[in-house]
Amino acid sequence: MRKTVLVTGGCGFVGSNLVDILADSGHSVIVIDDLSSGLKDYCREDVKYYFDDFKSLLNNNFPDKIEIIFHLAAEARIQPSFKDPLYTCLNNTYGTSVVCEFARKNNCMLVYAGSSTFYGGVYLNPYAFAKWQGEEVIKMYTKVYGLKSGIARFFNVYGPRNPLIGQYTPVVAIFEQQKLKGEPLTIVGDGEQRRDFTHVYDICRGLISISEEDRKAAAYDLGTGKNYSINELADMFGGEKKYLPQRLGEARNTLANYSKINQDTGWEPKYTIEDYVKKYKHRSKNK
Domains in the chain and their CATH numbers? Predict the structure, then answer.
């Protein structure tokens, strides 16, 4: 069924992939993105774009009745959150409050992009705290106002359009770039920290599955249920390793339990990091 859908952060990594899937499925898609991390390169002619802060939702000037909101816009990295915790909280906590208020007034279903940092400890860094507070805002709006809502906790997303943002680039994209340039693979700490790597297409399918029924702030893990050490990931790529000092505020291990979303929606991951790296190496070899 065709619906009118709003994606905040729809020019970013996950957002732009989600917009493609939604638009290709026949939905009417609207995007808000201030381009602080998103790119106009991903824009489509059949999607309406508002290049503005998502807090502009308070003005409510959309010509169409929005039925579903995917709230992906956020200040999205752990290490920068230490430098500017106020900005992180402003975007991830207050910003989510703005989106909830819009959803309340317009009777929208809201799907929120949470984070697996929830499991490492919500006081471990400002980013984890602010994303968790976003969840709490949604729970309050759901309990007090009857907001239709779902929460998706992402686990270490990789895949097409993975952002290249210097030292804060996600590790899979870092290894891809370093392998391409023939450089050593840089590993933070001892490399024995473990991560549940989840393909962006699986993340998008999970978000859509959550949106397909009215929910009451149900929280779901979007991950594979299998994790790998960073050393194991580096071995998949192959080549020399270079170790860097451990960074502050990062969890030792992440591992999803997707049984709840599988039970409620039938979702399960389709992609594996092993196959992804094999295909990457094959493409690189044939260039």
Answer: 4-285 (3.40.50.720)
